[in-house]
Amino acid sequence: MTTTEQILIFDGECGFCTACAQWIERRWTRTPIPRSIAWQSVEHELPDYSTPTPRQMSESVWWISGDQRDAGARAVARALLATSSPWRLVGRALLSAPLSWLAEPAYRVVARHRHRFPGSTSACHVRDDG
Question: Would you tell me which of 4, 14, 104, 127 could form a disulfide with 73, CB atoms 3.0–4.6 Å apart?
């Protein structure tokens, strides 16, 4: 089953990710208000919804809106589109060329080094498997 609501899925064990999710939640103005859920709680909170796999959710932030699934920088951009200006403009810019070409590589760098940011915990460290 898909959902009609808009959902941001993040890593709830990572302090940096949790702080970022809370930051964007405070800025959401779209009606109905989207919600954020830690990927560790998705199975409990959205038992009948079609969500990414646990591995996919552990590797990236996700934005779900109906049948649309966006990960990484696109998910961040979609979440920003649900805010008020100027953040909505930032979201739009992240989805538009040429900034969109740089957004995903920049997201990957931040994700890889999130354990070095304020609020991070040991759960924030992402190990490279390859």
Answer: 104
Q: How many domains does the chain have?
A: 1
d(CA 81, CA 10): 17
Q: Which domain holds residue 53?
A: 3-121
Dist CA 83 CA 20 (whole Å): 14
Output the tens digit of pLDDT for each of the chain's 130 residues: 556 789 999 999 888 889 899 999 999 998 889 999 999 999 898 888 888 888 888 889 999 998 899 999 999 999 999 998 899 999 999 999 999 999 999 999 888 887 777 766 666 666 554 4
- Whether 74 maps to a domain, the answer reads yes
Residue in 105, 101, 106, 108 with CA at minimum distance from that of residue 126: 108
Helix (H) or strand (E) holding 37: strand 35-38
**Percent of residues in the chain assigned helix, strand, coil, to nearest 5:** 50, 20, 35
Which one-letter amino acid corresponds to residue 74?
Answer: R
